[in-house]
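In this supplementary section we document a worked example of the pipeline. Step one takes a protein sequence of length 429 as its only input; no multiple sequence alignment statistics are reported here. Step two produces a three-dimensional model, which step three serialises into structure tokens for compact storage. The input and output of this example are shown verbatim.
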Amino acid sequence: MDSFVIEGQRPLAGEITVAGNKNAALPMLAATLLSAEPVVLEHVPEIRDVLTMQRALADLGAHITQQGPGTLRLHTPDLKKTSPAFNICREMRASFVLAGPLLARAGQAELAVPGGDKIGRRPLDTHIEAFRALGAEVEVKPDRYSLRAPQGLTGCDMFLSEMSVMATENALMAATLARGTTVLRNAASEPHVQDLCRLLCAMGARIDGIGTHTLTIEGVDELHGATGRVGPDYLEVGSFIALAALSGGEVLIRGARPEEHRITAVAYDKLGVHWEVRGDDIFVPGHQNLVAREGLHGAVARIHDAPWPGFPADLTSIALVLATQAHGSCLIHEWMYESRLYWVDRLISMGARVIVCDPHRALVTGPAKLYGQTVSSPDIRAGMALLLAALVAEGRSVIQNAQQIDRGYERIDERLRKLGAQIERVKGG
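The serialised model returned by step three reads:
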């Protein structure tokens, strides 16, 4: 188990380029199974979850070649099987996004109950409802899901019971090869869902309503090869903005796609964070005045997550660390996942003043003096939040289980060192 060793309170400044969005790359990789022709993906992040997905695809028969930094060519002329190895599936939740492409192309799929971050119950009910609406037979077993559509899938008008990103992606991919028209209502519209839609359209899919909560998919007989590009990781951007504000240095974030960060600007403004848009880049000025801004009539500042275009749930952990360094009080309300805040005890051990009100709410009072500690990363986003806290803290911190952070952030230690961070990776057993 690798660890990051960090000496805090070092000045950070310079430029950092945003990596590809993991949450776009994973379904886009899965989508390559929909065609027997080669598909090229650019700007693919080199992170653990992407490597895990490549292993799953190779197990199914995909031929994968690296054509340059961040560029992969994937070709699956024939499926060797329709059930990826269960041990691979259990390494990440996104393995279940293989269900839609397999069901659409082969008429069947069997997948293990997926693994992934332990941030609360994350049921797959919406996925199963969508597949059944398209005409699939689904058998739910304790350790697996068996799906069959021997006569193919049929388009329909469906309303998703929740605005689930991965359920939207699964239903979307399955519908591209279904007979007739599918109307997907209450669909997720996150940037990574839009990236997937653009790839599918490049492969010959017919999709209307991209970027909205209603997608209309007209099924086609087959999809062809294409080239697609993974968009920038807006969660990285949100993390780097917070990093700059916490460190007090000037940071230029390259390739940030600023139009995706209007809600982040609204949320971070409540803590006094501001930045400038410079074309496709974001510039964070140094020495920000971090103050928790009260609402009308003295109401405590509140940051809460919501489906896109609301504030991303994956950035609530980052916002919480920001709040520890802002003057005043801020309520972090993470209503989507009941275990997302369980990592906060580690932050409290570093000196943060946080009252965990319940599984969904934490009241943060700042600024708090943070001190280096040895802590363990429980999941990707909490791990990154702890890393930010360690960079602010006085003294040395050790963040164990660094592989969790590696799942979502490409070579984060190397990239932070270029900004001046004193961070080293210690290889574990």
